[in-house]
Amino acid sequence: MDLVSIESTIVERKARKLNQSYDIDVHGGYLASVILHTISQHFQSTLQNLHQPDTLTLHLEYFRPATAGSADLAIKDVKTGKQSSTIHISLTQGGQEKVAGYATNLDIGNAKGVSYATDYTLSPPPTPVDVSKLAAGEDCRWVSYSNPYHPKSFTKAQTQLKYAMPSSGSPHPSIMDEWITPTSPGDKFTNVIIGFVADQWPQMAENYRPGSPHSSEGIVARATRAARGASTKRDQGWRSPFWYPTLLMNIEFKKLLPPEGVDWLFVRARAKQIKDGRMDVEVTIMDENLEIVALSNHVCFIVNIAQGSSAKGEGSKL
């Protein structure tokens, strides 16, 4: 997964080239992974003496849409300490601040302290799965699908992953469950990629729109047609009247993925309230053993594309 193209490696201020393969307005999760990569470099260079290579928490505020091309990231050390350190980071383009946030780093791999087993489980429980059969589409309890690439689509970020959704649909309209794996052979998920994963789930608000092709029922129907060899041309692109820009995103990392990465992750996204054009989303990211890798929370707007469109009628994030 080609997340970051580095133009320079100046310690305190870094230039990045944002990949145009992640939506017309660059995908918020992609930006989160670019930022996580930059933070990782900072703690491996400027703050390497602290031995705090792992991001524990990341808080991001999205002010304006970022676009493909050059971007500058600036880091300010807010607090450095023996156990953890916090930095402020901002991403700008053309003199405008697009994203800003805070991150706290420590050494997760060597952390010591009190631990208690809480016996937490997802409720309702996810559909059982045989992960070894997902790639071949041989687990009938899950239906696999992918999104075709189109250069003018504002859902291009979704083409970076292959998905599997319960063939029975969502366990509740407010919930979206999925297993995901990178599209490109050899690519794997690492902790830096979790920023992208945390913002990569079907929109549960579409479950409340009867007949939506982007509801869990609509996605399963589309995937089933594709598996049977039927034409899916009419299924391509985003066909909802609404778009769901992220205003802020928080991520807490619960464990380190192995350095070589993993092939599959489970994601559950759940909304507690959808009201007055706003939506909260709680995201739980788990590994193949259903152990928590990261938790994420979002605040999103629900935007009418016709009222918030950019050039040529394409949707844009506010």
Secondary-structure map:
Blueprint: E1 5-6, E2 13-18, H1 28-44, E3 54-62, E4 69-79, E5 85-93, E6 96-106, H2 131-134, E7 142-146, E8 161-166, E9 175-182, H3 194-197, H4 216-227, E10 242-243, E11 246-253, E12 265-270, E13 274-275, E14 278-286, E15 292-301, E16 303-304
Antiparallel strand pairs: 1-2, 2-4, 3-6, 3-11, 4-5, 5-6, 7-8, 8-9, 9-12, 10-16, 11-15, 12-14, 13-14, 14-15
Based on helices, strands and strand pairing, what is the structural class? mainly beta
Radius of gyration: 19 Å
Give the tally of β-strands.
Answer: 16
% residues in beta strands: 25-35%
Order of helices and strands: EEHEEEEHEEEHHEEEEEEE
Distance between the termini: 26 Å
Number of helices: 4
Report the average pLDDT across residues: 86
Name the assembly state: single chain
Global outline:
globular
Largest sheet: 14 strands, antiparallel
Question: What low-confidence regions span 5 or more consecutive residues with pLDDT below 50?
Answer: 1-12, 20-24, 310-318
Helix content: 10-25%
Short description:
By secondary structure, the chain is mainly β. The chain has helices at 28-44, 131-134, 194-197, 216-227; strands spanning 5-6, 13-18, 54-62, 69-79, 85-93, 96-106, 142-146, 161-166, 175-182, 242-243, 246-253, 265-270, 274-275, 278-286, 292-301, 303-304.
Describe this structure in words.
By secondary structure, this protein is mainly β. It has four helices and 16 strands. The strands form two sheets. Strands 1, 2, 3, 4, 5, 6, 7, 8, 9, 11, 12, 13, 14 and 15 form a 14-stranded antiparallel beta sheet that branches. A hairpin with a 5-residue loop joins strand 14 and strand 15. The chain is globular, with a radius of gyration of 19 Å.
